[in-house]
Amino acid sequence: MAVTLVNPTGLPQIDVYQQVSVATGSKLINVAGQVAWDADGKTIGEGDLAAQVEQCYLNVGTALAGVGASFADVVKLTLHVVDWTPDRMSELLDGIARASAKLGVTPAAPASLFGIAALDVPEHLVEVEAMAVID
């Protein structure tokens, strides 16, 4: 495996991700921001943040698999959430948990979450980007 996830002593222990990833592979993979579209371009879960987060993570998983990678190879996730407020965290975590169950993994790479005003189309509530490293 080309990626080791670490929670160094002296930093907070976050439930949903590790603070640091160490990559030793030779191929860097950048996955474009994935929104809640299915393979036909139809928005999944209109108005439902958890459903959209789930679809975004499934799309990231599909993108990674398409180039021979998986969530185990992810070194960084970035989430952009429309009209984010901390009280929506349970919806976000629910979507991640549902995607994790379907993917058979728990994405735990370092992550950043940004609240934003809007995405490409009004129906989209979240976008997830990923960086991965493989040998």
From TrEMBL:
Please tell me the species this chain comes from: Antribacter soli
Q: Which domain of life is it from?
A: Bacteria
The organism's taxonomy opens as: Bacteria, Bacillati, Actinomycetota, Actinomycetes, Micrococcales
Q: Name one GO cellular component term.
A: cytosol
Q: Which Gene3D superfamilies match?
A: RutC-like
- Give GO MF terms, alphabetically: deaminase activity
As for family, the record states: Belongs to the RutC family.
Q: Which Pfam families does its entry note?
A: Ribonuc_L-PSP (PF01042)
Task: Quote the protein name from its UniProt record.
Answer: RidA family protein
